[in-house]
Design brief:
Elements (H helix, E strand, L loop, with lengths): L12 H28 L9 H18 L8 E3 L4 H7 L3 H26 L2 H6 L2 H13 L2 H8 L8 H21 L3 H4 L1 H23 L10 H6 L15 H6 L10 H30 L4 H24 L3 E3 L1 H10 L4 H14 L3 H9 L2 H22 L8 H16 L3 E3 L2 E3 L1 H16 L9
Antiparallel strand pairs: 1-2, 3-4
Helix pairs in contact: 1-2, 1-16, 2-14, 2-16, 3-13, 4-13, 4-14, 6-13, 6-18, 6-19, 6-20, 7-18, 8-10, 8-18, 10-18, 13-14, 13-15, 15-18, 19-20
Length: 448
Amino acid sequence: MNLIYGIKDKPKFSQLLVFAFQQMLAIMAATLVVPVLVNSTGVTNLDMDPAAALLGAGFGTLTYILFTKGNSPVFLGSSFAFLSAMYAATAFGYFGIIIGAILAGLVYVVIALIIKLAGVKWISKLMPAVVIGPTVSIIGLSLAGNAISDLQKANAGGSTLIAILCGLVTLFVTVLASTYGKKMAKLIPFIIGIGAGYITASIFTVIGNATGTEALKVVDFSALSNNFATISLSSFFHVPKFAFVQAIDEVSAFDWSCMGTLALLYMPVAFVVFAEHIADHRNLSTIIGQDLLENPGLSRTLLGDGVGSMVGAFFGCCPNTTYGESVACIAITGNASVATIAASAIGCIVLAFFSPFVALVNTIPSCVMGGVCIALYGFIAVSGLKMFKDLDLGENRNLFVVSTILIIGIGGLVIDFGQLQITSIATALILGILVNLMLNPATKTNKK
């Protein structure tokens, strides 16, 4: 595609702030929700701080940029793949969670060293377009249910139809701004779309509150009202609950015999996320017209992802991973500037300390985010389709590989081995690789 801003381009400072804010909106909901999900299980007395996870994502992304020498526009956020491991690891406290993340990160380091010595050609042979393309597609398609579920949800308990209307306003405005917008508007369609949806939802909510009509209540403003219930320094400045600070007091009491359990919880998941790492970087390479597995190189991107994941857990308990939402944002806006990614990471770090912003983000209704996620997740799916559109699907060797991956991924086949859970995406990828190797022993792709 024709990029408006390439990897090395640096937008004007005023524009950079706006672009960075848009990237933050694209990744923020998912990044903040991971610690919330862990806390909601009720199986732990740990109180993970979403703001700390946001800060961890910022530092993790800067770590990634450092390792890739600013040659890859990737944002790292809290990983959903590690949720099961985190649920179980809470029994070992904050220190155990950090140790688990370090062990997972070491898997990346070992794989990166192997790739550094053996090169990346074996990756291309193992995961050609016929495998990676449909895998990228199901990353987007597997999230479709989440987007539609959010689209129908009014946070204040209002009507589902009103929620859908607000979400569709968000979607339509985003689409129109991206397609017909001029100059700046074309670069910030998500900010414009979310703003329009939020204003629409707020108008309905204000009318609902004024008239006592429950069906019109969409936005739950309690996060903002609670933040300013008593005006104090904490109303404006919030020190996140850093994981490493909480872990310091646990070091002396930690049972080191649990290392084996933590390794079994975290390290296998790292191999699963490695597959998603390949898929996301392949997808992004197609979008920006530069093979990131060659430059900066898969060994560097893996090191950045692995160490960045450790950093994320060190600050906010949550290991990081590459975000498809960020990739989709780049695809839609044509802005692949690493400077924008770096600015968004710094923005996450700064705003993690700013209470009103965290409170404001928490008031954005799910239906509005659902509307914008239809576009984001859809672009991920379409990007995958583009990767194998030139393959001859009349050839059974290609048809069976693609169909296996799509059906298993969309069908949601998850395989559990005790504490280890292989996600549907990873399962689809693994079985797709096996089918491809079985039908194409030389792993050749058949093009028209």
